[in-house]
Design a protein that fits this description.
By secondary structure, the chain is α+β, with helices and mostly antiparallel strands. It is 35% helix and 21% strand. Strands 1-2-6-9-8-7-5 form a 7-stranded mixed beta barrel. A hairpin with a 5-residue loop joins strand 10 and strand 11. The longest helix has 55 residues. The protein is extended, with a radius of gyration of 51 Å. The termini are far apart.
């Protein structure tokens, strides 16, 4: 990798010669401006406002524009004479825990490479010291005409430096938060946690720029004279969240489905509604039902019957009268039996009386007939 800056790391009285190389690269696709009529490229030309003539790069210098519009020329010699101790030195000023650095300050990233064999020993010393202390180094350095703030940390076996914005370059987040007091319920937080857990972690190396790949395919297709089919538009919805709980639940289900995880409830795909439900075995419920109906008072609106499978099930309803009906029917039957037996006994008694009376009459008739015969 090509170095963009040569200097040294100032580590107390230790000086470490290093080379600065870019740790990142830009893969975005750049476009040129063209004239639509003939496809000619549009270029920008640097023209002086006073004589309206194009100026070459060698004729262009620096100037500071004052508040009233006056231009104050500043030359490279003027800047070189300024007392800038970090012009060729990365000066470490402190060692702090990594969490002391606000990610908002992060800027460009660089790798620091040891410049020459003599730099290997002090370079390794600083690297191992940073590893063992679990801290990062805060440093000042000068690059491209200005002094900057940086953070040194260890990446694998290399010391990396992140350019930092100065604290006064970080804007306060004024008017960025939602207006008014917003209350978040525990149920919403639980669903948000469930969604976070379902999405889980990701291998950062697996992430890539889908848009850039699509642009590259578009350019390749147009270069080959092929027709490009428009992509199917995605359903972005109306952009309004009507029910936050429902949106979170649907997000959890979608995340579980995308990760081949079972749905949130048994029978979720059976009814088509996808609602979460608790399922209880019938056997357990039926075994407890007769005990409850036995303990309950008679006025309770519960009745017990047997299913075709032979299990006893308790149902709610106006069956209390049906339950008590067999008792009253039995009482009526016993009363009717008693009445019938009484009637039968009475008839028998009447029959006996009739029999005895008829017997006595017959005896009298027989006696009178005997008397007439003897006479």
């Amino acid at each position: 990798m090509r170095s963009i800056w040569n200097g040294a790391i100032s580590f107390g009285l230790v000086s470490i010669p290093i080379k600065l190389v870019n740790a990142t690269e830009n893969h975005s696709i750049s476009f040129r401006q063209i004239h639509l009529a003939d496809g000619g490229r549009i270029r920008y030309r640097k023209v002086c406002e006073l004589d309206e003539e194009e100026v070459s790069g060698g004729e262009i210098g620096k100037a500071y524009e004052d508040a009233d519009g006056t231009m104050i020329p500043i030359t490279d010699e003027d800047l070189a004479q300024l007392p800038l101790p970090t012009a060729k030195t990365i000066e470490i000023v402190a060692f702090v825990p990594a969490d002391r650095i606000d990610p908002l300050q992060m800027d460009s990233a660089y790798y620091l490479s040891a410049n020459g064999v003599p730099a290997a020993k002090p370079y390794a010393l600083l690297r191992e010291a940073l590893k063992r202390s679990n801290r990062v180094a805060v440093a000042k350095y000068a690059l491209r005409g200005r002094e900057r703030l940086g953070m040194l940390r260890v990446v694998d076996d290399v010391i990396a430096m992140h350019g930092l914005l100065w604290p006064d370059e970080i804007r306060a987040p004024e008017d960025a938060a939602p207006d008014g007091d917003v209350t978040v319920r525990d149920a919403e937080l639980d669903l948000a946690d469930a969604l976070m857990n379902t999405l889980g972690e990701v291998d950062m190396d697996s992430l890539h720029d889908d848009y850039r790949e699509a642009v590259e395919e578009l350019v390749a297709a147009k270069a080959a004279g092929e027709s490009v089919l428009p992509a199917a538009p995605e359903d972005a919805g109306e952009g309004k969240v009507i029910d936050l709980i429902a949106a979170l639940e649907n997000s959890v289900r979608a995340a579980r489905k995308s990760r081949n995880v079972e749905g949130a409830g048994a029978g979720e795909g059976d009814g088509g509604s996808g609602d979460m439900a608790d399922v209880h075995p019938i056997g357990k419920t039926s075994s407890k039902a007769p005990r409850k109906s036995g303990r309950a008072a008679q006025p309770a609106k519960k009745t017990t019957h047997r299913t075709p499978t032979g299990k006893t099930v308790t149902r709610s309803g106006s069956s209390a009268t049906k339950k008590s009906a067999p008792k009253s029917t039995g009482a009526k039957k016993s009363t009717a039996k008693k009445a019938a037996s009484k009637k039968t006994a009475a008839k028998k008694a009447t029959a006996r009386k009739g029999t005895s009376s008829s017997g006595g009459t017959a005896a009298k008739k027989t006696a009178s007939s005997h008397g007439r015969t003897s006479a």
